[in-house]
Amino acid sequence: MIQFKDVTKSFKNVDAVKGVSCEIQDREIFGLLGPNGAGKTTLIMTMATVYNPTRGEVFVDGHSASANPDEVKALIGISFQDPKYDRILSAREILEWHAKVTGVDKGVREKRIDEVLAKFGLAGEARKRTWTLSGGTKKKIENAKVFVQRPKVAVFDEPTAYLDVPSRLMVWDMISELRDEGSTVVLATNMMDEADRMSDRVGIMSRGEMVQVGEPGRLKGSLKGRDIIELKLEAVVPELTTEVSKVEEVREARYEGDVLKIVLTNGRGLLPHMINVVTAKGGKVQSVNLKEPSLEDVFLHYTGMKLS
Amino acid sequence: MSEKPSSLFVLWVLVERDLRTLLKSPWILINRTAFFLIQLFVFAVLVTKLATSLGFNYFDFYSVGAVVSTITSIAFIIGEDLFEEEELGLLDYLLSLPFGHSLFVIGRALGGAVRGLIYVTPMMVLVAYLDGYFSVAGVAGSLLVIFVLATGISGLSITLAMLIRNANRFDIVIALAELATVRVSAAIYPLAYIPKVLQPAATYSPVTSTSDIVRAIFLPGYSAGSYEVVVLLLFVAVFFGLGAAFLFRKLEGGRFE
Could you give the C-alpha distances from B37 to B32, B70, B185, in angstroms and in order? Predict the structure, then answer.
C-alpha cells in the first residue's frame, strides 16, 4: 500500500503539492488526474524519493520514503512523461542498463527485453541510437523500461502521450497485465478516457491539491441530476421548455438552436416519457442524444476547470 | 519482481554507463587524441629543438605533462555532465533508481575518472614507448597516479558545479579553472621557467605533483618523494570529499532545487 500523509512539496515560495493525503491499495490501478501543473509529477517524484517532502510523509509498502529511501526505490519503477535516458545509446542498451541497475535477474533479462521490444514493434530499431527515433518510439522505449523491470509499484506518467491509437491500446493492455501479475500501478494522466478506462480508482488533482478520490463510476454517479437529453426538433416549439420543466426530475430545459436540452436526473429512465411530452405538445423529434456525466464532468465539478 | 542489487554491482553499473556513452562518442576520443598527437609531434618537437641548446630534453618532459594535462581536462567534464543530466531530466531518472545518493555520487566521480583513464591509456603507452622507457609496471603505476588525480579533479569540477549552479557561468569558470590548473603547474614547462609570482601556486599544484611522480617513474634524472604524494592525496581528499558532500547535500535537498 502507498500512503500519502499530509504531503506538501514547495519549491522556493511555490507549493507544487499542498497537504495531499490519500492511500493507494495493492494491485490497483490508481489514476492520477489533473491538468499540466496540477502537481501530479511532483507527487510522484516525492513518492519516488527524488524530492523530499517539505512537510508530511510518504510510505510505500510500510517503508518511509524519507527515512528508508533505498527500500522505497527498490520497489518503484517510473516511466517518465518525457523520455529520460541517454539518447546516444540504443533502445537495447537502455533497457539492458535499466534492467541491470534495477536488479532484474540475469537469467531472464535478455528474454524480457526481447519480449518487450517485440511487443512494441521495436525489434528492428533496437540497435539504432535513440536520438534518431520518432517521439512516439522514444515514448515506447520509456514505457518499455518499466515493463522490463516489472516493479512492485509501477508509475506511468502520461504513458500514451505521442502514441498512435493501436500503440495506446497495447500500452493499456500491458499495464493491465502488469497489475494482474501483482504490481500496483499509478497512472498519471490528463486524458479522461484513459483514466476512465484503466483506473480502479482515480485521484483528482488541482493546483497542487487532491480534491477528490474514488472509483470513476461512483464519482460519476455522485453527480446526480446532471444527465442531459438533447432532442433535435424539426421546428422550435417555445412552450416546450415550460411544459418539460413541469416534470419533477427536470432541473433545467432550454433551447440551443433547434435542439431542446433537458438537464435531469435519471435521463435513461425518463427518455421515453420526455419524448411523449414533447410529441404531445406538437414537437417533432428528429434525433435523440442522451449524455450521462463523464469523468470530464466530474473533474469540472470538483475543480471548476476543464481538463482539456 | 526484481531484487535490490548490491552496492558494488551498482557502482560498476554506474561506471559502465559512463563507458557505454564514451564508446558511443568516438569523435570526442578522436578529437582529443588528435589534439594530443599534434601537441606532441608539432609543438613539443619544435620546442625541443629550441630547448636542446640548453641541454634539456623537453620532449620527454612535455610528453608526460601532456598526458597529465589531458586527463585533467577530461576529468573536468563531469561537472558539465551533471548540468546536462539535470537539463535533460536524466538526473530525476538516475535518482529514482534503487541506490542511495552516496553511491550515486561516488559512482559519478569514479565514472568520470575511469572514462578519463580510458582516454589517456593509449597516450600513456605511446609516451612510454617514445621516451624509450616502456614497461608494463611503469605504465600501470603511472595510470594509477593519473587515476588518483582524475578523481580529485572530478571532485573539484563537481564542487564548482554545485557552487555555481548556472550552466553558462559554469562553462566560463570551468574553462578558467582548467586553464589555471594546467598552466599554473609544471606539467608542460619546468617550474623554474614559470613567472615568480605564480611559482608558489605551481609548486603546490596537484598537476605538478602528478607530473613529477609520473616523470620519476619513467624518466631518468627525475625524482619525486613523499611531498608530491602528500600534495596529490591531500588535493584528492579535499576535493573528492567536498564534491561528494556538496552533491550529496544538493541531492538530499531534492536535486538542484
Answer: 9, 11, 21
Question: Residues of B at the A interface (Cβ-Cβ below 8 Å)?
Answer: 1-5, 9-10, 13-14, 16-17, 20-21, 24-25, 88-90, 92-93, 95-101, 252-255, 257
Q: Is B3 close to A105, i.e. CB distance below 8 A?
A: yes
Percent of chain A's residues with pLDDT above 70: 98
- Each domain of chain B, given as residue ranges in start order, spans 7-252
Distance CA(A192)–CA(B118), nearest Å, equals 51
List the domains of chain A with CATH numbers: 2-220 (3.40.50.300), 224-292 (3.30.70.100)
Return d(Cα A264, Cα A201) in angstroms, integer: 26
**What number is the ipTM of this complex?**
0.78
pLDDT band at B257 (very low <50, low <70, confident <90, very high): very low
| Distance in angstroms (rounded) separating the CA atoms of residues B26 and B6 | 31
Angle at B82 between CA B29 and CA B159, to 5 degrees: 105
Q: Residue A128: phi, psi to the nearest 5? A: -85, 150
A95: Cβ–Cβ under 8 A, 6 or more apart, which residues?
Answer: A113, A116, A117, A141, A144, A145, A148
pLDDT recorded at residue B91: 82
What would the grid cell of residue B168 be?
553558462
Pairing mode of beta strands A227-233, A201-206: unpaired
Whether pTM exceeds 0.80: no
**Separation of CA A101 from chain center:** 28
| Section A11-29 average pLDDT | 90
**Residue in chain B nearest A102 by alpha carbon:** B98
The DSSP code for B42 is I
